[in-house]
């Protein structure tokens, strides 16, 4: 059996550094808001090419805290509209809804699967305040045109970079494009903690300070509360682990790119639609997905061939029971088609070439009977 994802190989290579990081925190006996977090926030901001970053508890909170901070700054008010992709993980939408704002779905480009300026522009209304592009599956959205549109329409841009650590456009990385960008360090992401963690990046240092305050009960000074805050902090153990793993991120992303190139060259099957290629750097291949009209059959076939797979994602947000009431009768055909046909195959640092060749061979021999 070839698993969809195996983190043991990746951790084995840095096991002694992870152990040392863990022990440093244990020995310090300081677990929340200490040196490790401060150092990681600096290193992460530096990596992304921004002035500052704020750690928080997870990717959903990272998105939400930006929106809450913009409300406090008077840039947003409840009921304002946020343009979101119609195809994304539900967290993108939940952050908007939980902040009292209205998600307005925008269909993606069917080749790149990210939103772009043309689709976004059509959905701008007098109540639109924010564009929330997602760098889906590791591919950075076309940020130069999105930032131009935002400037001419006077909108804020919040990037969802939960799947795209290190992806760049014209050399400028995710985290540095939007007015703020949010990251998740969920274990399976390109940069993952050993539990939940997240961060916001921005060159607006006031915003980052406000987000740190909001994530710490709205208090800058202990037991003095300026805002109705949250408890959303990145703890010292996770920060120490992330500092070790950050040193490997570029190498891991190179390995992902190499594996993706081998899939793009090697998979040749008229029943499988491969993802569009992208210049090096613009895609960090968090997920390699193929699309097929015969997905149920492909799933059974992969199960019997012993190849792991996942579906990202089976149901689009507007059709989830949680949201169905708010989008009655609305259809987003591009998103619905992606969700109905997509299937993700194994791609992770440490996946051996021999195993990848088996996966390629298995996929090339897939012939649907129905
Ligand atoms: C993982 C993910 C999130 C949420 O991150 P968590 O850390 O799980 O809260 C948000 N958006 C996208 C696109 C994601 O893939």
How would you describe this protein?
It is a single chain. With 370 residues, the chain is an alpha/beta fold. It has helices at 7-12, 15-28, 35-48, 59-72, 91-98, 117-122, 143-153, 205-214, 236-246, 249-266, 295-305, 321-324, 333-341, 353-364; strands spanning 52-56, 81-85, 102-106, 128-131, 156-160, 168-169, 172-173, 180-184, 198-202, 219-221, 224-225, 288-291, 342-345. The protein contains 14 helices and 13 strands. Bound molecules: pyridoxal-5'-phosphate. Pyridoxal-5'-phosphate binds next to helix 4 and helix 5. Pyridoxal-5'-phosphate is lined by residues 58-60, 88-89, 91-92, 134, 160, 162-163, 184, 186, 196, 198.
* Main sheet attributes: strand count, strand direction, barrel closure: 7 strands, mixed
Compounds present? pyridoxal-5'-phosphate
N-to-C SSE string, H for helix and E for strand: HHHEHEHEHEHEEEEEHEEHHEHHHEH
Distance between the amino and carboxyl termini: 26 Å
Please tell me how large the radius of gyration is. 21 Å
Structural class: alpha/beta
Mean pLDDT: 97
Poorly predicted parts? none
